[in-house]
Amino acid sequence: MARKIFVNLPIADMQRSRAFFEALGFSFNPQFTNEQGACMVISEDIYAMLLVHPFFQTFTAKRIADARESAQVLLCLSCDSRGEVDALMARALAAGATEPRPAQDHGFMYYRAFDDLDGHGWELMHMDMAAAPGTPPAAA
After folding, report:
1. Domains, in order of start, for the chain
2. Which residues partner with 109 through β-bridges?
3. pLDDT digits (tens, 9 = 90+) for 93-102
4. C-alpha to C-alpha distance for 104 and 110, rounded to whole angstroms
5. C-alpha span between 47 and 8 (Å, rounded)
6. What are the CA-CA distances from residue 43 to residues 38, 56, 79 (Å)?
7. DSSP structure string for 120-137
8. What are the CA-CA distances from residue 34 to residues 39, 74, 117, 140 (Å)?
9. Contact by Cβ (8 Å): 64, 12
10. Reported pTM
11. In 3D, which of 42, 55, 63 has the Cα closest to residue 124?
């Protein structure tokens, strides 16, 4: 069985957060979604659990950081093309995200970043591994 990842994110408003991520094209697994938490499907093996603050707090004794004031993690999603990066970024901005910095173009790697409605940092990246520095030439 493939290992799966479930990233747990504290959110302020379930309805608002779900609408935001649905506008980006993500779906939710209804089996693990209710008013306290929502299982957002990113891929077959990657999920984000959106948990309202009081419910998130039941999993930790630590204070929930305000993602608008401090960074605890940056979530990076790979995209199949530069066009997909730009299209997903456009949907995020139209749904209310903010863009904390300009696009970065390193030739072999192109990425953009947005902060979601709760301030969590997301990066969208396309990488051409064949053009990456240090990639050995193709065997003759």
Report:
1. 1-61 (3.10.180.10), 70-133 (3.10.180.10)
2. 127
3. 999 999 999 9
4. 6
5. 9
6. 15, 22, 12
7. -EEEEEEE-GGGSTTPPP
8. 9, 25, 19, 56
9. no
10. 0.86
11. 42
